[in-house]
Amino acid sequence: MNRLFTAAFVFLGNFLPWSVGVVSAADRPNVLFIAVDDLRPELGCYGSEIAITPHLDALASDGLLFDRAYCQQAICRPSRASLMTGTRPETTGLFHNYVSLRELQPDILTMPEHFVAEGYETAYVGKIFHHGDTDDDRSWSRKSANWLKDIERPKGPYRLPENVKLRQENFNAMFAKYGEAARRGLASGPAYESADVPDHAYVDGYNTRLAIKTMRQLADGEKPFFLGMGYHLPHLNWCAPKKYWDLYDPAEIPLSDQVDAPQGGAAMGLHASFELRTRSGIPKSGPIDRTLSRTLKHAYLASTSYVDAQIGLLLDSLEQSGLRQNTIIVVWGDHGWHLGDMGVWGKATNYEIATRVPLMIWTPEMEVRGETTKALVELVDLFPTLCELVGIPKPGHLEGHSFAPLLSDPHREWKKAAFSQYPNPALREWAANPLSQGMRETWFGPLIEQVEQRIIEQQGDRWDRDLFEQHLMGYTMRTDRYRLVVWRDHRDREAKPVFIELFDHHNDPQETNNIAKRQPDLVQTLLRQLESGYAASL
Known about the structure:
31% of the residues lie in helices and 17% in strands. The chain is built from 17 helices and 18 strands.
């Protein structure tokens, strides 16, 4: 139950204190639902030797950390739509960022919508659904706080005037040529920024303070609450206060030691890092040199540490309010991110580095604390899990499987496989939509031609432009030992694969060698398992 409490808070940074009055009791626990965009498991609690993430590490040390959690598609909108509806991309029909969930599935039940129906107040701050899929009218029962006294709301990603100007100049030039299409990734400012400003000067810091204010408002109500807090970083652009950059010595930041594509891998399996290359100051072709690579990883790490600090502030307020002992806390990332791994910068692949995500959960009554589970779990499992943990019915449409039993027995036998998919990364934009004319006409044209030629050389007479640009899907299955990637025509699940990849994680955890041709019998066994689907993996 929410306890009666009266407390005053003095928050870190530049946030004004607020006091909390009497809160009515409720029978079910609250849920604090924390999403972090583009966060790979580059955290101290996941064994990173460089990442400074004390608040997430502390949460993991008192909760349950999932070492092998996977998204259903390594791009924002499809991944979040899958998680928030408890269904897989094949059900939502959502495979890229430029179509809305309600456009394709007007009647599908979302997680917060279900919680509302079961007596919860729901609200969110920041990015929970993807932009354009906020579902304000159906999924959220009340609006969050939207302003802070004496603190200016951030406008845009940059604080340094020169970066604000550069971004606008780049957009103006692209708008003049392509009109509204320029908004789809044809122009941007710098990839990173380090400004000596307070945390709330950037949007994630400001939004954290809005979430704290919203939590106060929810706590004053009679119902249990479901509060979503969605962090934009470490999504590009990596703009974080200077003090978080100063946590790191650039000379000590390690770079990926696997910068080549998998030997014998699919030519369509990797992209040309379009999402990064559109930023000012990033080479439009060729490799990213080691000096710039180190700066970019520094920017990513600083952004991660900044978000970690904001999560710490949010959790501190939950603790001081007296709400924590009746609140379930879950932290998840929507997909991974290549930081030069396999020579790629960005998400949007079917490999381990893009599909594996950070996931941790804390509940007031969990029996085992500070454990790490190796169980295979998926983001689509969160909907049924939270239903079970708070004691509400699970809707019949769910395609995930509750991992609540792992909270009491983290090492028990579990799923046999996790499933993800991604349409041809090489010939798709970074939002996973088919290549636009603007992409072909800008500096990306030569890159696209190079990638296309590699595919033609590998595929030979299997090459078909319409198939490879519009309909080729990579379906991937991660078992305890293997990752299978099957490339085939999305329109026909019975179609013969045009290419297969197989990686042995016992001997090759970085997925450097495709062994499919050497293991034909194993491939056939795993193909049958893939065809059996997610339900057969339970």
